[in-house]
Amino acid sequence: MVSKMIIACSQLGCSEEIITIAVVLSVQSIWISRRGIQKGSDEAKLRFAAAEGDHVTFLNVYKGFHQSGKSSQWCNKNYVNYHAMRKVLEVREQLKRITKRIGLVLKSCESDMQAYTTMRLCSSSLPHYRFSLWQPCNYEGFVLHGFNIRLDSFMYK
């Protein structure tokens, strides 16, 4: 399903961001969370949080990590799992090579909002892939196929 989304988004000109999001979702949690540091971890997550949801939040974390020179100190300061981010870099490069090999265009969106909109457009055409709505008092959606929210999602709290 992710491969179909990458192909569709490549045709719409946002393949770089979609690959990044797909990889972040495929590795272990990018956040460090241990007992005793929850408050600091939550504050760090809020620095990257995006109203559009976790996908744009993940892009913000990736960009911060990349701009820091892929620094382990930056990860420690921001409660980001350095080993998970190194894995993101590794798998992302593999996906980019595969994408190029099959003839898809690698292009970056002009903004995170464009990436989010394009990703929603691409994924809405895929079967069984739905976006949910967070409402202050309850959670709606994803009843189909026993969906679970990731524990590191902002929607979980």
TrEMBL record:
GO molecular function, one example?
A: RNA helicase activity
Q: What stretch or stretches form a coiled coil here?
A: none
Query: Per the record, a Pfam family?
Result: HA2_C
Q: For this protein, what reaction is catalysed?
A: ATP + H2O = ADP + phosphate + H(+)
Q: What is its EC number?
A: 3.6.4.13
- Please give the name of this protein: RNA helicase
Q: Which organism is it from?
A: Vigna angularis var. angularis
What phylogenetic lineage does the species belong to?
Eukaryota, Viridiplantae, Streptophyta, Embryophyta, Tracheophyta
Write the gene name: Vigan.03G132700
